[in-house]
Write a structure and sequence with these properties.
binds FE2/S2 (inorganic) cluster, alpha/beta, eight-stranded mixed β-sheet
Length: about 575
């Protein structure tokens, strides 16, 4: 019996490969038969499963099983599932930083979707850069697409205490350096940190981007945040496979879902969940692929009125398994429903706000109500001033309140290597009021804009009980990290930004409520300064391959650090045949 869907009645993109009786159609079908019947090529949507599973991306290594459930759903709905392994990025392993490769993963995925006889795609991601790269690709090729986030790992415990991956690694390693935890105990905790399959269980970048993919409308509502080992994830994957076939029939493409309204909702969600600062760069890049106007100021303005409702590490106490148990993203968004754009739809064609009716908070410790927020303002603040003319960001929820307005003398490091060489030098002149400046870590300078901005404090400060000082960097910070850290300074030092001109001993003023970041050096003196050689050396170093292409074309953080020639989209058409 044929289970051909309604979509069989309308012509499919893949017909350009498979329909007809000429030599080329013969070739395309013949090579793809391999056990499938000829009816597989007669009006049945060809659904790619873009899979970032990889043994070298441990957070995504279970996605093969998820893909099987997607396959079943696609087949059941009358489509043909086609697994498409795509570039995978493991945050903890890839050097010099996974961010260097985000745009490459996006470009390769986009091109393979466009080049192949695909009518729609299910995107499987998890670890930090994978979902942003997949969404950037889907936006640029604009074929019907839907995401299954791979989900967080279960909560690990060490000696009775829950361990948040990332956040607790930073905390425990600082405790070792402060002399309050033994090296042996630190190493014993290693095997307890990663309890199961899945990505980091804190509100780091992976958790944030999975949830924001849902807030954007690109995930079946209620699915994001399902822990990776939870059987409901496979059930949702099956349903997503079915939905992908329906998307082709409805011709519902990312450009219909990813509107300014959906980005508005994502920014509201980002603030309410206390999400990663990395989401700022990723949202800007995805919006850039669609021509949706979204600026740093939009992110600050939209998030400013949104309370922080989720008590998760690194800003709070709990972990992703708790958030799911407490009601998940939809329960959070129900609390701020009036701040959402009611017109933005999800991948099922219905407004996101319609899905909030039945959502409930089941644990008010984990998800706070609007009346009792964790913080009144959960948004990410955007700073400007003569030190960051194109902007910089800070996450006040992860910062120390007493440092949000601060004036201190700069202690400058030209590179992360310079920092490591000098941080524990007994002669380093630094105190609790100093402002640590790290440069050479932007998109071009490193290259790739690594997560190094949350500099560990000098041991001599830790021993005095200091746990936070103001830090300023043109790089990024792990979403699992915390501290009063000013990030994404643009333009970066290697692109001629004023950060390159700061000298140790200069006064810097940070004013988060006033959204200012100022270097107290007269303009005339600043104009006379030249960047240190160490700052420009990294950019001048000869490179080849992707690194060369990246350094020559990467944009600054304030617009998403995409490559200039990847902004926008090319659509799904390829006019020329391969034979
Ligand atoms: Fe993959 Fe944290 S290392 S999500």
């Amino acid at each position: 019996m044929s289970s051909r869907p309604e979509s069989g009645k309308r012509s499919l993109r893949s017909d350009a490969w498979y329909a007809g009786e000429d030599r080329n159609a013969y070739i395309h079908r013949a090579w793809m038969r391999r056990g499938v019947p000829g009816s597989a090529f007669e009006g049945r949507p060809q659904i790619a499963i873009a899979n970032t599973a990889s043994d070298l991306t441990p957070c995504n290594s279970h996605l093969g099983e998820v893909a099987k459930s997607v396959r079943d759903g696609v087949y059941e709905a009358g489509g043909i599932p086609l697994e498409l392994p795509v570039v995978s990025l493991g945050e903890t392993l890839v050097r010099p930083t996974a961010m260097l490769w985000r745009n490459m993963a996006a470009m390769a995925t986009e091109e393979m979707l466009r080049a192949n006889p695909i009518d729609g795609v299910v995107l499987l991601g998890g670890c930090d850069k994978t979902i942003p790269a997949l969404l950037m690709a889907a936006a640029s090729v604009d074929l019907p697409a839907v995401v299954v986030p791979g989900g967080p790992m279960l909560t690990g415990t060490f000696r009775g205490t829950p361990l948040g991956c990332g956040t607790d690694v930073w905390r425990l390693s600082e405790e070792v350096r402060a002399g309050t935890l033994s090296q042996e105990d630190f190493l014993t905790s290693e095997s307890a940190t990663i309890r199961s399959r899945g990505h980091c269980n804190t509100m780091g970048t992976a958790s944030t981007m999975g949830l924001l993919a849902e807030a954007l409308g690109m995930v079946i509502p209620g699915v994001a945040g399902t822990p990776a080992p939870d059987s409901r994830l496979l059930e949702s994957a099956h349903a997503t496979g079915r939905l992908a076939v329906e998307l082709v029939a409805a011709d519902r493409r990312p450009s219909e879902v990813l509107t300014r309204g959906s980005f508005h909702n994502a920014v509201v969600a980002l603030a309410a969940i206390g999400g990663s600062t990395n989401a700022v760069v990723h949202l800007l890049a995805i919006a850039g692929r669609l021509g949706v106007e979204l600026t740093l100021e939009d992110i600050d303005r939209i998030g400013a009125d949104v309370p922080l409702l989720v008590d998760l590490q690194p800003a709070g106490r709990f972990l992703m398994e708790d958030l799911h148990r407490a009601g998940g993203l939809l329960a959070v968004l129900r609390e701020v429903r009036d701040l959402l754009d009611p017109t933005a739809i999800t991948i099922d064609g219905r407004p996101l706000v319609d899905h909030l009716e039945t959502a409930r908070i089941w644990d008010r410790e984990v998800i706070r109500t609007r009346d009792e927020p964790l913080l009144v303002e959960g948004g990410i603040a955007v700073l400007r001033g003569n030190l960051a003319p194109q902007g910089a960001v800070i996450k006040p929820a992860a910062a120390s309140p007493h440092l949000l307005q601060h004036r201190g003398r700069a202690v400058v490091f030209d590179s992360i290597e310079d920092f490591h060489a000098r941080v524990d030098d007994p002669d380093l002149e630094i105190d609790a009021d100093s402002v640590m400046v790290l440069r050479g870590c932007g998109p071009r300078g490193y290259p790739g804009m690594p997560e190094v901005a949350n500099l560990p404090l000098p041991t001599k400060l830790l021993r005095l009980g200091v746990r936070d000082v103001v830090r300023i960097c043109d790089g990024r910070m792990s979403g699992t990290a915390y501290g009063t850290v000013v990030l994404h300074v643009a333009p970066e030092a290697a692109a001629g930004g004023p950060l390159a001109l700061v000298r140790t001993g200069d006064w810097i003023e940070l004013d988060v409520p006033g959204r200012r970041l100022s270097l107290e050096v007269p303009d005339a003196e600043l104009a006379a300064r030249v960047p240190s050689e160490a700052t420009t050396a990294a950019y001048a170093a000869p490179r080849r391959g992707w690194e060369r292409l990246y350094v020559d074309h990467v944009l600054q953080a304030d617009t998403g650090a995409d490559l200039d020639f990847l902004v926008g989209g090319s659509g799904d058409q390829v006019s020329r045949e391969s034979h």
